[in-house]
Amino acid sequence: MSETLHAVSVEVNGKPRSAQVPARLSLVDWLRDDLLLTGTHVGCEHGICGACSVMLDGEPVRACLMYAVQAHGHRVTTVEGLAKPDGSMSVLQDSFCEAHGLQCGYCTPGMLIAAQGLLNTNPDPTEAQIRDAIGGNLCRCTGYQQIVEAVQLAAERTAKEAK
Amino acid sequence: MKAAPFEYARAASLSEVCALLATHGDGAKLLAGGQSLVPMMAMRLVRPAWLVDINEIAELKFIAVEKDMARTGACTRQGAVERDHALAARVPLLRQALAWVGHVQTRNRGTIGGSLAHADPCAELPLVAQVLGARMLLRSGTGARTLEAEKFFAGPMATNVRPGECLEEIHWPAWSWRHTGSAFTEISVRHGDFAMVAAAAQVAIDGDGRCVRAAFGLGGVGGTPLAFPKIAGRLVGTRLDDAAVNDAAHAAATETQPGSDLHASAEYRRHLAGVLAARALREARERARSL
Ligand SMILES: Cc1cc2nc3c(=O)[nH]c(=O)nc-3n(C[C@@H](O)[C@H](O)[C@H](O)COP(=O)(O)OP(=O)(O)OC[C@H]3O[C@@H](n4cnc5c(N)ncnc54)[C@H](O)[C@@H]3O)c2cc1C
Ligand code: FES
Ligand code: FES
């Protein structure tokens, strides 16, 4: 069966990307399978786990609940886009290493996107606000405590750097 | 790819939506935030022949706060409504309810109209619509009509929106008494899940602390969210003391016919209904008194 293809042009991590996609191709499959940005993970593929979180126009969303064709004309940031321009890790990413905010790493890209989304609008969050921001992301390893501490550490470090 | 193949159209205007719906009839579905529809398509519970994407239609995305109501476009994101301070000041129940709806990521995408049209009997926004008596403006190729919340919800995941119609905007009545307070509360398996039972309440009191208007309702205990205008009416004239509140909550819970499932028996749900309705009414009363 031949499916209709749709043209999409999306800014992904600051670079313009274009493709022809079938309408039912999810955004996360396009990012991973066609653009080879495999940092974003896929877990449940129906909106429950948060592993596929990316930023759409700066706001965290689930990339398995959008079709790639819907991203046309928008800006997408994946976990690859969080690193500094020289490729070294961002303050948040480094804080996850420092505070042991990950074990197997499956949930980590989604956690980083959710946490960065929070810090972008609220640089000094309370613990409750951090837990709320990552509430839509499942982690089967850490028990969440160290993830919360990693986000707190990132907030402290960023505040210090600004001084 | 998880979903079955479908044809896709990105509508640029409401009139284009109406034209597409008229052409494709029953085979077409509107795609709003996709937070309910896309999972159902991934599981192939639904297989629409056409998806009409309404996400790029600017005229469906707005928040307007007016004298005696607030209007929201159907495709306004839940997150945008949650963050709007002017709206929260006039219709506080919306922000209070949205804190319980899904997660940051789902609210950044999910829309107000999508939640109402999806009509899950455990969903928070349909309950708010029912309690406040929201009005839904529906548009089709042949005209427009307005449905009150009471007539809008038809059953579990069912509304009286006709094929060919698109929910265009929602009117949320605002109460103008100075001492108006509202509250939303629920019990769910995990925070961010759909409610097992939810309760919403809004009360207004005069300078002497006497109730001049009350409204409350329950979700998760019937095929649609339920409001109890007659029982709420009996609170008017009281001081909303705990005894009056408990009586009203108990009377409402007794009227419900919840179902049983893996998570909770009908009996437990009815118990929760009474407890949560009383809690919501008390919290609303405290807010009204503090103003
Ligand atoms: C992990 C997760 C947790 C969630 N938790 C909750 C929760 O706690 N409470 C809750 O209420 N919801 C919850 N949801 C669902 C909520 O996020 C959805 O946003 C909402 O149910 C549907 O809105 P939508 O904009 O995403 O609509 P869509 O999924 O795009 O559409 C839903 C239905 O409405 C129809 N529709 C959409 N817009 C219109 C319109 N303008 N006119 C006519 N018909 C229309 C569509 O055709 C479709 O049938 C959750 C979802 C996820 C993934
Ligand atoms: S893969 Fe998207 S939420 Fe699980
Ligand atoms: S680190 Fe393994 S799932 Fe979170």
Strand content of chain A: 15-25%
Question: Which spans of chain A have pLDDT < 50 for at least 5 consecutive residues?
Answer: none
Helix/strand-derived class of chain A? alpha+beta
Give the oligomeric state: heterodimer
Query: What's the main sheet of chain A like?
Result: 5 strands, mixed
Fraction of helical residues of chain A: 25-40%
Beta strands of chain B, count: 14
Low-confidence stretches of chain B: none
> Please, how many domains of chain A?
2
Task: Give the largest interface.
Answer: A-B, 36 and 31 residues
Assign the CATH class of the largest domain in chain A. Answer: Alpha Beta
> What's the number of helices of chain A?
5
Name the CATH architecture of the largest domain in chain A.
Answer: Roll
What do you see in this structure?
The complex is a heterodimer of chains A (163) and B (291). Chain A is 34% helix and 17% strand. Chain A is α+β, with helices and mostly antiparallel strands and 163 residues long. Chain A folds into two domains: 5-82, Ubiquitin-like (UB roll), CATH 3.10.20.30; 91-162, [2Fe-2S]-binding domain (DNA polymerase, domain 1, Orthogonal Bundle), CATH 1.10.150. In chain A, strand 1 and strand 2 (15-22) form a beta hairpin. The termini of chain A are far apart. Chain B is an alpha+beta fold. Chain B has three domains: 7-53, Uridine Diphospho-n-acetylenolpyruvylglucosamine Reductase, domain 2, CATH 3.30.43.10; 59-173, Uridine Diphospho-n-acetylenolpyruvylglucosamine Reductase, domain 3 (2-Layer Sandwich); 179-290, CO dehydrogenase flavoprotein, C-terminal domain (Enolase-like, domain 1, 2-Layer Sandwich), CATH 3.30.390. In chain B, 35% of the residues lie in helices and 25% in strands. Chain B contains twelve helices and 14 strands. Chain B has a five-stranded antiparallel beta sheet. In chain B, strands 11-12-13-14 form a four-stranded antiparallel beta sheet, with helices on both faces. In chain B, helix 11 packs antiparallel against helix 12. The longest helix of chain B has 24 residues, at 266-289. The model of chain B has no long low-confidence stretch (mean pLDDT 97). The chains are: A alpha+beta (163), B alpha+beta (291). Chain A binds chain B through residues 1, 3-4, 6, 22-26, 29, 45-47, 50, 53, 56, 59-62, 64-67, 69-70, 72-73, 114, 117-118, 132-133, 135-137, and chain B through 1-8, 10, 31, 34-35, 38-39, 41-43, 51, 53, 55-56, 79, 102-106, 108-109, 191-192. One FE2/S2 (inorganic) cluster is lined by residues 42-45, 47-52, 62, 64 of chain A.
